User: Which sequence fits this backbone?
């Protein structure tokens, strides 16, 4: 049986707890996806701390099926950009339905992704589909997609709280990330590519609002 530890959380009175929760909601509600990044460096220690927070996420059977690869090398970022743009050109030209393209038009995206080189950091996030035991036997992962999704949410929130901008980028397919970053194709699947850095001077974002249904919670 696994050893048990005492669990403690920060101690607040109820009024302070409500205030803290509201302040956190206010800060996180200001998070926006950014596509114009400054090339100003971001210290590795900031990225490392955010990844440490992400790795605190709950996971199915505590198997922690996330794999993060943080990239700052300009040559590697260049290779990722070229591969991503090749897939994106296929998407915008052939793969996407008109309905999908119509949904993207207000955001103003296209196949060109200069931010993949401009931003100081790219974090490639992989889902481990199965583990491998010392004897070579495959070990099933439980709820890997859900677990990695939760960890990614914590990562994005942590980076936002540290004063950095992010963009979730999902070119499809993304297997080129396995090849460029030397991650095993058989058991790790790319989940998304997180672009991280400072917003460019004068950066703007689309004037869009969150859907009322997305911030409405039924209380029963």
Assistant:
């Amino acid at each position: 049986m696994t050893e048990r530890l005492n669990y403690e959380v920060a101690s607040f009175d109820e009024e302070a707890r409500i205030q803290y929760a509201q302040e956190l909601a206010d800060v996180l509600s200001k998070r926006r996806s950014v596509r114009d990044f400054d090339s100003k460096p971001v210290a590795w220690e900031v990225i490392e701390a955010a990844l440490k927070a992400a790795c605190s996420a709950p996971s199915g059977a505590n198997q922690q099926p996330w794999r993060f690869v943080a990239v700052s090398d300009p040559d590697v970022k260049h290779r990722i950009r070229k591969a991503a743009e090749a897939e994106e050109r296929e998407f915008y030209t052939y793969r996407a339905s008109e309905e999908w393209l119509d949904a993207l038009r207000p955001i103003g995206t296209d196949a060109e992704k200069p931010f993949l080189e401009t931003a100081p950091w790219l974090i490639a996030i992989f889902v481990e589909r199965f583990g491998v035991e010392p004897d070579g036997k495959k070990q099933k992962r439980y709820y890997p997609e859900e677990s990695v999704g939760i960890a990614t949410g914590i990562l994005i929130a942590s980076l936002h709280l540290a004063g950095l901008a992010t963009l979730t980028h999902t070119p499809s397919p993304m297997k080129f990330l396995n090849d460029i970053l030397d991650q095993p194709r058989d058991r790790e699947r790319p989940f998304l590519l997180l672009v991280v850095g400072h917003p460019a001077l004068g950066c703007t974002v689309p004037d869009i609002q969150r859907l009322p249904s997305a911030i409405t919670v039924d209380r029963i």
